[in-house]
Design goal:
The protein is α/β, with parallel strands linked by helices. An 8-stranded mixed beta sheet has the order 12-13-16-17-11-18-10-19.
Length: 500
Amino acid sequence: MKIAIGEVVHETNTFSSVETTVELFKQCAWERGETILSNHRGVRNYLGGMIDHAEALGIEVVPTFSTRAEPAGTITRETYETIKSELAAGIQAAGMVDAICLSLHGAGVVEGIDDMEGDLLQYVRSLVGYELPLIVTLDLHGNLTEKMVAEANVLLGVHLYPHTDCYERGMEAVDIAVQMVKDGLQTAMHLTKLPLMIPTSTTNLSPAKDINAICWEWEKHPDVIDCAFFHGFSYTDHPDVSVSVVVVTNGDQLLAKEVADDVANQIWAKREEFTPQVQSPTVGIRQALAAVGLPIVINETSDNPGGGSSGDGTYLLRAMLEANLQNACFAFIYDPEVAQIAHDAGVGTTITVKLGGKVDKLHGEPIELTATVKSLTDGCFNISSSMWKGLRVNLGKSVRLQAGGLDIIVCSVRSQVFDEQIFLLHGIDVNTYKIVALKSSQHFRAAFEPISKQIITVDSPGLTTLQYSFFDYKRLSRPIYPLDEATFQKATKMYEAETS
């Protein structure tokens, strides 16, 4: 048996002013052929799961094309056409295969195309036809569409956030491909969408944890292959934005709809439980200082580059400096200009710079900072978190600055913090610090929950704030909760009155 694999991943924040170009994709990953196998074999991501499992089963894996970019603004049309050409060349070079397994995201937006994944799958079908099994893995933050469902045989969403089960979904994609090719499995899928947006919600806590339990209970049914709760991606603005449920069955379309509708109804019943408790950086710092033990982790959810924000926001860092913290560290702020200044100056020097606040006007003003250069690195390491363990990361020229009792890491490439590796690279053992601050919404939890005494989430203005009122939505399908909460309350009361 022979399967082709490929990857095109982008989570598009349409509110970002940073266009996503070929250069941004190449900064993260732009891989062809055998390079895909060598870069992902043994890595705990989707492609790693596909490669390792297929090879363990004696299946020939044919790599086509793989690219991904850090979340940012809308993908340019020229960039998308280039990606399509690369993927097509890889598929055509693969020759005759028995199935295709693709790693996509589900929230890609291109100039003039709201549903990149649906469009890309349709394009792949134009190349290979509709007889070839096409299995797709997706991020749970995808905004799912009927077009995606129509073009793929199977859509598999990760269940966990942090996404520590990407590897397993890649393995599952291969297993389903084998069943379709060798056992004649015929699949059926149903998509149920809700008029609902939810904030970033970790799945090891309720209510997201409870919904996953419901999905997994349904997966015990002998004819249910997969049941996935897609949280959706609310930091974009088009009609397909919403929470959804996708169910895959062993050919039973009615069962797929029954299961998807049941899970969707239970999500809707819990919609108010997803409302976050929001606090400012100042309050979060006060709570951290009062907490017992160390480290206490403060995550700045409103400037999460993993959701398309600038990565150079200054609200939390400014509050930490104003609090004159001791035994505290911060990772990391994106500022290639300051990183270069520090590298030019050298270790042991004192520099005065304007730090952060340069990408846009949404995440705070630049900070006037005088600090000592403590260490310089190339920003390269392998992820040690259970999410994507083994993946090579390059954050470019990086520096550890020290201002009073605060260590500040500055890097040249935008990214959220997944684990302690960027700290260790600069000589910081987070286990010895009272306060460890970082930019991320939830993915950091995979590595930091086991070692932290407490996690405190802070929010402020930014492109990944938990407050949706910050955004000027114009194209959503309305009404949608919680933006139109009053509308739904009125409708509920009318329904109750009519049925009482």
